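Researcher: Next sequence.
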Amino acid sequence: MAQPGFDVVAGHRHFSADAFNRTWELIDKPDRTPEESEQMLLRAAASLWHWTQREDVTAENLSVGFWLLSRVHAIAGSTPEAVRYAQLALRESEKPGVAPFCRAYAYEALARGEAAAGRTEASRSWMD
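Model: Next structure:
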């Protein structure tokens, strides 16, 4: 339950974007520690969770959120999760009204996840 005077809607709006942006700080860091990799995963998950709490969430927002989770799992070496979140990104990207770039990002995520898992042919298939 929210504290009196706390604007939950504004909180979700803030943290969905802030956690997304702060994830990129760690994605772009070339020498991440294992602890920073864990923080990268947590930030991406937090961003998506806050998006799911927003009344204005769209399939496009969810597609991008799942894409980010896929990307950080691939970077962290969690390949089953990378592929699973890429599949969720693709599912959301196929919904009506979602910008075409989201489908391209989902295919990229599937290719990245499969490559991280060592499945070169599957990765190439998604790239094609």
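Model: The longest helix spans residues 8-27. The mean pLDDT is 95.
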